[in-house]
């Protein structure tokens, strides 16, 4: 079975229940925290996939990674129980990513990633936010910046499937391709 299909189905079901109970935003925040935990700690996925780790420990691990204290969120706890009962706890990362996608699509939230050769000043960051905001219209955005020295200079902006590459490394690459084609 397609591994992308299982997480998507569970994420859709979780979103439907969370929406019905008025907890969609709270679950979104938990899933964001959970995805960050998976990115920061590669051993987390291995622990969830390990058949020798007891299911109760896996649930505690996921709750902790999501930032949930015991009894804090019944929708999330019920969902974890469902995953354990159906032996799908090792799909947690994929489900969290799928939930984020579903929530963002439903609420018109775009992930905007700006990568620059050196740290951007506060003024330039605000200017980029304003420009991207005009491009998106009334949609909301989650804005993040990072530094990539290999760009040499300039920046790249990624919004969904769109990418603006205003980096010197891209200009040099284009120049090289133009010279080679002549």
Brief write-up:
This protein is an alpha+beta fold. The protein has helices at residues 5-20, 24-40, 43-49, 55-66, 74-85, 92-106, 122-136, 168-181; strands at 109-116, 140-147, 154-159, 162-167. Strands 2-1-3-4 form a 4-stranded mixed beta sheet.
Explain this structure:
With 182 residues, this protein is α+β, with helices and mostly antiparallel strands. It is 59% helix and 15% strand. It has eight helices and four strands; from the N terminus they run H-H-H-H-H-H-E-H-E-E-E-H. The protein is elongated. The model has no long low-confidence stretch (mean pLDDT 93).
What descriptive keywords fit this protein?
4-stranded mixed β-sheet; alpha+beta; 59% helix; 182 residues
